[in-house]
């Protein structure tokens, strides 16, 4: 039996245990020293010099504490943002197992796509600044791709999807995309190194707390996401959108003060023009028509 397996209650090494351990070990060993594992919301750090038995104990501990928070993958074509949520969408990730430009060594991010009609009921909320990106952001850098090609691809993603994402500008959008993709791509890289197909990779993402919305063409996996009124996108189960991304209603504006009547008399100022006392009747503060030809609040003595 393998010395690196997780043993079952019967003391035998199961194929499923070996599979899970391969994925977890590859994920952990691919991180920067000291290694930090982000598994199901648990953060566990340990030194890269630790022995294999220590790492095995750590993985067994994390596995025993971790529970999936993701619902089953929905079988729906249209995404419902839920009550009180205006922005929802999908983070689309490439496994690298597709053909043509979708075949590459490492998993990568494709983009963040608000699910506006006909793909869902997300609003299209424009940016404060719609200028195109002028640089290639970190998660779009590819060793075998020219920078100009990647920049064109970014501009396409921005114009088609980013300008509906409720962000400030393209920098805000792509910074969020790269941050959202970082954890899932680590899991996908480990899954690819372990030889998993797209279905098993999706299952591993689900177990890791990155909730899968769908498997789509070109061996891509999409994760459900939403954003609140602050424009910050979150990876979230579609069942929790209303709890995590409900928009806060703006405060009610202060009531508009009543306009000051123009037909009135105030101290030390001319009132409305008049030719007789009758012209000043029913005008606020006015008592008579003065010799100046204006109503006044000053009574005759």
What value does the Rg take, in angstroms?
32 Å
User: What is the 3D shape?
Assistant: elongated
In sequence order, what are the helices and strands, one letter per element?
HEEHEEHHHEEEHEE
Helix proportion range: 25-40%
Q: How big a fraction of the residues is strand? A: 5-15%
Low-confidence stretches: 1-13, 29-67
**Helix-and-strand structural type:** alpha+beta
Q: What's the count of strands?
A: 9
Give the number of helices.
6
Q: Would you tell me the overall average pLDDT?
A: 81
Largest sheet properties: 5 strands, antiparallel
N- and C-termini, Cα separation: 117 Å
Describe the structure.
The chain is α+β, with helices and mostly antiparallel strands and 301 residues long. Helices cover 27% and strands 15% of the residues. The protein contains 6 helices and 9 strands; from the N terminus they run αββαββαααβββαββ.
Keywords:
single chain; 301 residues; 5-stranded antiparallel β-sheet; 9 strands; 27% helix; 15% strand; disordered N terminus
What is the strand and helix layout of this fold?
Elements: H1 15-29, E1 35-39, E2 42-46, H2 52-65, E3 87-94, E4 108-114, H3 147-160, H4 170-193, H5 198-207, E5 212-216, E6 220-227, E7 233-235, H6 241-244, E8 288-289, E9 295-296
Antiparallel strand pairs: 1-2, 3-4, 3-6, 5-6, 6-7, 8-9
Helix pairs in contact: 1-4, 4-5
């Amino acid at each position: 039996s393998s010395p690196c397996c997780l043993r079952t209650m019967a003391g035998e090494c199961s194929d499923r245990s070996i599979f899970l351990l391969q994925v977890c070990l590859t994920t952990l060993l691919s991180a920067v020293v000291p290694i930090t594992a982000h598994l199901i919301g648990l953060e566990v750090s340990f030194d890269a010099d630790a022995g294999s038995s220590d790492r095995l104990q750590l993985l067994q501990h994390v596995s025993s504490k971790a529970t999936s928070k993701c619902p089953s993958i929905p079988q729906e074509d249209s995404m419902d943002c839920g009550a009180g949520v205006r922005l929802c969408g999908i983070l689309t990730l490439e496994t690298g197992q597709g053909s043509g430009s979708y075949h590459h060594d490492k998993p990568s991010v494709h983009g963040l796509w608000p699910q506006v009609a006909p793909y869902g009921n997300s609003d299209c909320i424009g940016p404060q600044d719609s200028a195109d990106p002028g640089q290639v952001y970190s998660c779009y850098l590819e060793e075998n791709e020219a920078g100009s090609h990647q920049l064109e691809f970014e501009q396409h993603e921005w114009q088609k999807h980013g300008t509906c994402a409720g962000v400030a500008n393209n920098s805000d959008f792509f910074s969020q995309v790269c941050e959202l993709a970082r954890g899932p791509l680590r899991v996908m890289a480990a899954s690819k190194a372990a030889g998993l197909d797209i279905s098993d990779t999706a299952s591993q993402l689900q177990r890791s707390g990155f909730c899968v919305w769908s498997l789509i063409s070109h061996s891509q996996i999409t994760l459900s996401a939403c954003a609140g009124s602050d424009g910050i996108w979150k990876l979230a189960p579609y069942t929790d959108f209303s709890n995590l991304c409900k928009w806060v209603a703006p405060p009610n504006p202060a009531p508009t003060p009543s306009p000051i009547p123009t037909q009135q008399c105030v101290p030390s100022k001319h009132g409305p023009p008049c030719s007789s006392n009758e012209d000043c009747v029913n005008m606020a503060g006015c008592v008579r028509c003065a010799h100046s030809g204006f109503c006044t609040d000053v009574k005759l003595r």
